[in-house]
Design brief:
CATH topology of the largest domain: Aminopeptidase
Helix content: 25-40%
Bound molecules: zinc ion
Largest sheet: 6 strands, mixed
Structural class: alpha+beta
Number of domains: 2
Order of helices and strands: EHEEEEEHEEEEHHEHEHEEHHHHEEHH
Number of helices: 12
CATH class of the largest domain: Alpha Beta
Number of strands: 16
CATH architecture of the largest domain: 3-Layer(aba) Sandwich
Distance between the termini: 46 Å
Strand order of the largest sheet: 12-11-13-16-14-15
Radius of gyration: 24 Å
Strand content: 15-25%
Shape: globular
C-alpha cells in the first residue's frame, strides 16, 4: 500500500497542500465500484473502491470554512452512479458534512469533502484483497480526539519517551496480572475457610445474586475510561467477606471485525459476524457494568473497523485486567459446530486448523484496511519480544472458566482452551482470550446466533466465566 504519513499532513497545515501518490503504470479508465462510509466518533472512513489502479492527489484546505479536502482522481468519469454514491453522506457523521463530485476536465473527477471540525486525515490506497478490488481510503480522524481512550493513545504516541513509557506500562500491567491472580486465589481460599468455619454456604449480598441487579457503583460512562485503574471502589464495612480487593476490574471487550471487514458470513441467512458479535459484546458490557466491581469497555461500539493492534492498544491504554475478543466461527464443513476458546500461542505446535483460523482472523487488517506506519511496526516488534508466558498461563486458566460456563449453554467445539497465534491477543501484560461463540457456517447455529436469546446466553456465560476467573461471586443472566 502507498501511504502518506498523517503527521506530514498535520505539520504543514498552512493553506493548500498537495500530495501526489505513486503513479501507476496503467492508464486505463477506472470504474468506481462503490463508495462506503463508516462514521464513528473515533474516526470516519470513506472508501472508494475501483476496478483498476488510479492516480489521485489530494489537498486539505484549512483556511476556509468549512475545512475541505479536495481529491482529484485521474481517469475517472463522472457518472450518475458516482454522483449517487458520493451523495450518501450520513447526516449523523461526526466529522464529514458532505461530499460533492464534479468533472474537473475530460480526464479528472474532483471530489470535495467538507468537514464539521478540524481534522487529521490519513489517505492511503489498498491493493485488492479478498472480495475487494482496489481501494482508496480516507480515514478522517478528529484533530482533537473526543474518545478518552483514543486521546490517551494519541498523547502516549506523541511523547518523546514513548518507548520507555511503554515498557514501564507493561511492567505495571504484569504486576497487576500477578496481583489479580493472587487475589483470586486468596478469595477462593477465603470462601472455603468461611464456609468451613460457619458451616454454611458463603453468604452473598443480595445484589450479587440473580439477574439484573442494579449495582450501586455501576460505572461505565465511556467518559472516565481514561484512567480506570485509579478508580477505587470503597467497600461497605458490612460486606461479610472479600476484604482484600478494592480495585474495580476493567474488562476490555472486543467485538471482532467491523466496517469494511464483515468477518465470517453465514451460509443460510448471510449473517455478518461483525453484527452478531457486536450485539453479544454490548450485552456483555451492559451486564458487567451492572455488576459491582467491574467496568467494561468496548474496542468498538458500532459498525466500523478497528485495526488489530489498536484493539490491543486500547486495552493497554485502559489498563485492562482482562481482554476478551468475541467472534463467530466459520469452517468449510457445515457440520462443524460448538463454542471454542483460544489463548495465544507465540510458538510451538499449532494444529493446521488453528493456524488457518489465526491467519484468517489476522487477515482482518488486510480486509478492514490499515495504514501501517514504521512506528506501529517498531512498537509491535518491541511488544512481541517480551515474555508472554505469564499472560498465556493466566489466559489458559481464565479461558477454561469461560469454557465451562459456555458448556452449560452450548455444545463445545473443543473441550479445552486451544492456542493459536492471534494478533489481537498479543498484549504481554493482559490476560487475553478469543471466544468463537458458535459457527456461522452451521445453519442451525447461524439461526441461533441471530436471536437475542442466544446472544444473551452467550454474553452471560462469558461474563460468568470472567466473574469466576477473578474470584467474584454473583451470576449474570
Ligand atoms: Zn472473527
Amino acid at each position: 500500500m502507498t501511504g502518506v504519513n498523517r503527521r506530514d499532513v498535520v505539520m504543514g497545515t498552512a493553506g493548500f497542500l498537495i500530495f501526489s501518490l505513486l503513479p501507476v503504470s496503467k492508464a486505463q479508465a477506472a470504474q468506481l465500484l462503490d463508495v462506503r462510509m463508516w462514521p464513528a466518533p473515533e474516526y470516519t472512513r470513506i472508501t472508494l473502491e475501483h476496478d483498476v489502479p488510479m492516480r489521485f492527489k489530494y489537498s486539505v484546505i484549512r483556511n476556509g470554512n468549512p475545512i475541505r479536502m479536495v481529491v482529484d482522481v485521474e481517469g475517472l468519469k463522472l457518472t450518475d452512479k458516482l454522483k449517487q454514491l458520493v451523495a450518501k453522506t450520513q447526516p449523523n457523521d461526526p466529522y464529514v458534512s458532505g461530499i460533492t463530485a464534479s468533472q474537473l476536465n475530460s480526464k479528472t473527477v474532483r471530489l470535495v469533502i467538507s468537514f464539521k471540525t478540524e481534522i487529521d486525515p490519513q489517505v492511503f490506497s489498498l491493493k485488492p484483497f479478498g472480495e475487494y478490488k482496489y481501494r482508496l481510503v480516507f480515514d478522517i480522524y478528529p484533530a482533537v480526539q473526543k474518545d478518552p481512550i483514543m486521546a490517551l493513545i494519541q498523547k502516549e504516541e506523541s511523547e518523546p519517551d514513548a518507548i520507555e513509557k511503554l515498557l514501564a506500562q507493561v511492567a505495571e500491567g504484569q504486576q497487576r496480572m500477578e496481583e489479580n491472580r493472587l487475589e483470586a486465589e486468596h478469595d477462593s481460599i477465603g470462601e472455603l475457610i468461611a464456609g468451613i468455619s460457619s458451616g454454611t454456604v458463603v453468604p452473598m449480598k443480595p445484589e450479587d445474586v440473580g439477574p439484573s441487579k442494579p449495582a450501586p457503583k455501576a460505572p461505565a460512562s465511556k467518559k472516565d475510561s481514561g484512567k480506570p485503574a485509579t478508580t477505587v471502589t470503597k467497600k461497605k464495612p458490612s460486606t461479610p467477606k472479600r476484604t482484600v480487593r478494592e480495585r474495580v476490574l476493567v474488562v476490555m471487550i472486543d467485538p471482532g471485525h467491523g466496517g469494511e471487514d464483515p468477518g465470517a458470513v453465514g451460509r443460510r441467512y448471510r449473517t455478518h459476524e461483525k453484527t452478531v458479535v457486536l450485539s453479544i459484546a454490548k450485552i456483555l458490557a451492559a451486564e458487567l457494568n451492572r455488576t459491582r466491581g467491574f467496568k467494561a469497555l468496548l474496542t468498538r461500539d458500532r459498525d466500523y473497523f478497528v485495526p488489530l493492534n489498536r484493539r490491543v492498544q486500547k486495552a493497554r491504554a485502559a489498563k485492562a485486567d482482562f481482554f476478551v475478543s468475541i467472534h463467530a466461527d466459520a469452517w468449510i464443513k457445515a457440520s462443524a459446530r460448538g463454542s471454542s476458546i483460544f489463548a495465544l500461542n507465540t510458538r510451538g505446535r499449532v494444529s493446521s486448523q488453528n493456524r488457518w483460523l489465526a491467519k484468517n482472523q489476522n487477515n482482518a487488517d488486510l480486509i478492514g484496511g490499515v495504514n501501517v506506519t514504521t512506528k506501529d511496526k517498531r512498537i509491535a516488534k518491541i511488544l512481541l519480544d517480551m515474555s508472554f508466558s505469564a499472560q498465556v498461563s493466566d489466559s489458559l486458566v481464565y479461558g477454561k472458566k469461560i469454557l465451562t460456563e459456555l458448556s452449560k449453554i452450548n455444545k463445545l467445539h473443543k473441550s479445552h482452551v486451544e492456542q493459536a497465534n492471534f494478533a489481537v491477543l498479543k498484549a504481554p501484560d493482559i490476560p487475553s482470550v478469543l471466544v468463537e461463540t458458535a459457527f456461522l457456517s452451521n445453519p442451525e447455529e447461524e439461526r441461533k446466533l441471530r436471536t437475542r436469546t442466544f446472544q444473551r446466553k452467550l454474553a452471560c456465560a462469558i461474563g460468568n466465566g470472567i466473574l469466576k476467573s477473578f474470584g467474584r461471586t454473583g451470576t449474570l443472566g
